[in-house]
Design brief:
With about 280 residues, the chain is mainly α. It has a single domain, classed as MetI-like (MetI-like fold, Orthogonal Bundle), CATH 1.10.3720. Helices cover about 70% and strands about 0% of the residues. Helix 3 crosses helix 14, helix 4 crosses helix 8 and helix 4 packs across helix 11.
Length: about 280
């Protein structure tokens, strides 16, 4: 009797998980189906729920807006911002967790307050600064405004605070200076937190649309999200197969980053929840 209940419980759990996965993945699956259909098939009724044969939509989407160049711009900006944020966040978190200075709590609170001020809120003065620096239509304008990260500082500070004081004292006794302690001890112990941070920041920058739309005017400097918008024709009938093909192509790099960093991402957040 007990074994039957356990089997039924496992069966119900797996069925619930399968339904949840299908519900979450339904938009992607439907998007893939549309990306392989012609305009006539897309607007047919009843709708066709099986893939078509128009796989040339992917090549058309790639060539129509020079999607390769736009994806390179997005990838370059995402990588540089993630790297810059990592360096700045780690150093700031190390200062807030292992040094004593006047107003430490106040300055940390002030950094956290910036989480309430996203880019759209400060976009006008930020654009004036970028314009005065002549960073419009440059990688500098796309990268520098995102380098400071309150989220990264908070994540690494919380992790550094869990490092036992005995380890810090032992490092000092062995003559280990602050920078050496950070590079050779703290950072290797933070692999899971780094994995979670990389996934969050890469996807965040990859999905940026509003700021690149304002600060970039030249076609060769635009990012992939703007490229997807360029596939949409507001004056004529849209080829949704091509548009969905472009969307799916743009999804590949973030998915790749997530799959590569999946274990570190999950362990990092599980570790944070335990703390």
């Amino acid at each position: 009797m007990y074994k039957r209940l356990v089997r039924r419980y496992h069966l119900f759990t797996h069925l619930a998980l399968i339904v949840a996965v299908l519900a979450v993945g339904a938009p992607v699956i439907f998007g893939f189906i549309i990306s392989t259909q012609s305009p006539v098939e897309v607007f047919s009724y009843p709708p066709k729920l099986l893939p078509g044969s128009h796989y040339g939509n992917y090549g058309q989407a790639w060539n129509q807006v020079n999607l390769g160049r736009l994806m390179f711009n997005s990838a370059y900006c995402a990588i540089m911002v993630t790297l810059g944020k990592f360096i700045i966040s780690v150093m700031a978190a190390f200062a807030f967790s292992h040094f004593r200075f006047w107003g430490k709590r106040f300055w940390f609170f002030l950094i956290l307050v910036t989480l309430m001020l996203p880019i759209p809120v400060r976009i006008v003065p930020l654009f004036e600064i970028v314009s005065d620096l002549r960073w419009v239509d440059t990688y500098w304008g796309l990268i520098v405004p995102f380098l400071a990260s309150a989220t990264g500082t908070f994540l690494f500070r919380q992790h550094f605070l869990t490092i036992p004081d005995e380890l810090t004292d032992a490092a000092k006794i062995d003559g280990c200076g602050p920078i050496r302690f950070l590079v050779q001890i703290l950072i290797p112990l933070s692999k899971n937190t780094i994995g979670a941070f990389v996934v969050i920041e890469f996807v965040y920058i990859w999905n940026q649309y509003l700021w690149p739309l304002i600060v970039v005017n030249k076609d060769h400097m635009k990012v992939v999200q703007i490229g997807i918008k360029m596939l949409i024709n507001t004056e004529a009938m849209n080829n949704w197969g091509v548009i969905m093909a472009g969307v799916l192509i743009a999804m590949l790099p973030p998915l790749l980053i997530f799959f590569l960093m999946q274990k570190s991402f999950m362990k990092g957040f599980a570790f944070m929840r335990e703390k």
